[in-house]
Amino acid sequence: MSRAAVLSGVGSCLPFRAVPNDELAADLGSSEEWIRSRTGIGQRYFADRGTATSDLAAGAGEKALKCAGVSTVDVVLVATTTPDRPCPATAPVVAARLGMRGTAAYDVSAVCTGFVYGLATAAGLISARVADRVLLIGAETFSTLLNPRDRSTAVIFGDGAGAVVLRSGDPAEPGALGPFDLGSDGEGEDLITVPAGGSRQRLSGTEPASDDRYFAMSGKEVFRHAVQRMTGSARAVLVRAGWQAQQVDHLVSHQANLRITNHVADDLGIARGRCVSNIAEVGNTAAASIPLALDHAHADGTLRPGGRTLLTAFGGGLTWGSAVLTWPDLDQV
Question: Which residues cross the membrane (predicted)?
Answer without folding.
Answer: none
